Amino acid sequence: LLLEFRAVARLAGRPDLEELAMRSWQALGKATGRVKGLAPSKLKMTSSGCAAQFVFGDQAKLTVGSGVDSYYEYLLKGWLQEGGSGRPPRTWSDAVDAVDANLINVRGPTTFMADIEKNETLGNRATHLACFWPGLRALEALADPRVASSVLPLAEKLLDACVAAYDATPTNLAPEAWHVNDDGSVKLGPSRHLLRPETVESLFWMYRATRKQKWVTAAARIWDALQRHAAIDGGGFAALGQIHKQTPARVDKMDSWFLSETLKYFYLIFDDADGGDELLPLAEWVLTTEAHPVPRFGGPRDRVGTTRQQKTWSIDVPSIGTMRPLPNETAADSVEGL
Question: Measured between alpha carbons, how far is 115 from 42 in angstroms, rounded to an integer?
Fold first, then answer.
């Protein structure tokens, strides 16, 4: 919540909230137990609630996916929120060097993100959650063009592998996870498709960084597949089960990330491709891990200090005993009825 806390703190004139966010971030930076320069997916806390030590071994794995994806994302985006001047922080460069050296696997012609599992070997299993990574590197290239020529070739290969997982299924929708065979082909197993945003997020940033039509075409294929298999008559989209089958069963579930992220990134890439005015320009906005835009400090959208009076404020919260049901609300639905 680093970006979110800092944005709210500035708008509310509450530097204490920003200080809390930064203290938490600094505690992560000081936590011991990193493996090969990476942050494992679990963290041990002290009795006072401070981040103390990263945990690896039988309890966690090394990945850029589940459990740590937003951490890596905010190493770069926190710098962008502050204005993005100079070069990204050392913590970011250390992280990407470690990821490139330890979490990228190659099987045949396929280069893909993999995890170091509990036995401390790099596996051949890829996850959809990790498909945000090539887009994050494309964002880095946009923010710091000096590194584009060294960053983008590898990032494009990683994104190719994510798109290949979509193209490998009968539905043209990627599973939550898959394996990569020795010849580089995708090995499918029973899996779901949860309308996740990571691949289309990367397609958007990669298209903005390279302007290659192949990334828009890939996004269009995925959008067409969603329309064919996941769209519900009357509105909404459904998650899918068993997408290795020609006609997967629909699941009565549409997670919030589909609205806040997946659809937004589809809109952004198609708008860019149609010659739009580049909605959400990088010089003005940073997208949080849930794709909510927050202004860059000191940028043209930063209104703090010009339209808002800086002051400390508090919210009066009534005690539970005085809260009553709202109109059309039963007592069982109210706080007092708990």
Answer: 14
Terminal alpha carbon distance of the chain:
29
pLDDT digits (tens, 9 = 90+) for 276-322: 767 889 889 999 999 999 999 988 888 764 443 333 323 232 232 33
Active-site residue set: 176
Sheet hosting strand 125-127, strand order edge to edge? 125-127, 177-180, 186-187
Distance CA 248, CA 173 (A): 11
What residue ranges in the chain does DSSP mark as E strands? 42-45, 51-55, 104-107, 110-113, 125-127, 177-180, 186-187, 239-241, 249-251, 285-287, 293-295
Burial status of residue 179 (CB atoms within 10 A of its CB: 0-12, 13-18, 19 or more):
middle
Half-sphere exposure of 152 (CA within 13 A, CB side): 20
CA dihedral defined by 7, 12, 13, 19, rounded to 10 degrees?
-50
d(CA 262, CA 197): 4
Alpha-carbon distances, residue 312 vs 15, 55, 70, 278 (angstroms)? 8, 38, 29, 36
Q: Hey, what are 247's tokens?
A: 């006609």
Q: What is the pLDDT of residues 58-100, one digit of tens each?
A: 556 788 998 889 999 999 999 999 988 888 988 899 999 999 9
| 283, containing H or E segment | none
Reduced to 3 states, what is the DSSP secondary structure of residue 78? helix
Q: How far apart, in whole angstroms, are the C-alpha atoms of residue 126 and residue 103? A: 10
Could you tell me if 206 and 159 are in contact, meaning their C-beta atoms sit under 8 angstroms apart? yes
DSSP one-letter code for 290: T
Q: Give Cβ neighbours of residue 150 (< 8 Å, ≥ 6 apart).
A: none
Rg (CA), the chain: 22
Amino acid at 293: P
Question: For residue 98, what are its two tokens?
Answer: 């470690």
Contact 137, 149 (CB under 8 A): no
